[in-house]
Design brief:
Blueprint (H helix, E strand, L loop, with lengths): L4 E6 L8 E6 L5 E6 L12 H4 L3
Antiparallel strand pairs: 1-2, 2-3
Length: 54
């Protein structure tokens, strides 16, 4: 059985290309998208569209 994990990637919902973290459940299914606080460009920002990507 897999453990929950977080995948670091980028949102392509618009030209902003914010860096995001995709939170996955134990089955590997994405359940939540949050901003990546370690991103040097978006600095943790995520808009409502990106947050609703799931
Ligand atoms: S999070 Fe919002 S602003 Fe950032 S790339 Fe996605 S859609 Fe654009």
């Amino acid at each position: 059985m897999e453990t929950p994990r977080i995948v670091r990637t980028s949102c392509r919902g618009c030209h902003g290309v914010c860096q995001v973290l995709v939170h996955c459940d134990a089955a590997g299914r994405p359940v939540k998208v949050t901003g990546d606080p370690d991103s040097p460009t978006s600095r943790g920002y995520i808009c409502p569209k990106g947050a609703a990507a799931i």
